Amino acid sequence: xxxxxxxxxxxKRRKNILQHTKGFRWGxxxxxxxxxxxxxxxxxxxxxxxxANKRNFRRLWQVKINAATRQEGVxxxxxxxxxxxxxxSLDRKVLSELAEKQPEIFKKIIKETxx
Length: 115
What we know:
Blueprint: H1 7-20, H2 32-71, H3 76-85, H4 92-101, H5 103-114
Helix pairs in contact: 1-2, 2-4, 4-5
């Protein structure tokens, strides 16, 4: 059986890690052990914060919808409940954009749900 030298795989693995740490500060961009440790943390935070970002945007949409519905004398809770009863399937992102950029259309939606 032929002898296998494994330097190419190791070099490729190290090179890949260092490519991902481009732009990191100090030794974390050039030393493989520190780079690997930095990437473990970076990817963990990135995964966690993608989820947090979704939560934050949903809260923002709820605040915008609530502000617009309160001007019409309806609470956010009542508005969402009546949307579900009338089977109007607009998500909160679309509703918040309507409330912010096209308030006259949003008022029509509120009137439709109030019937």
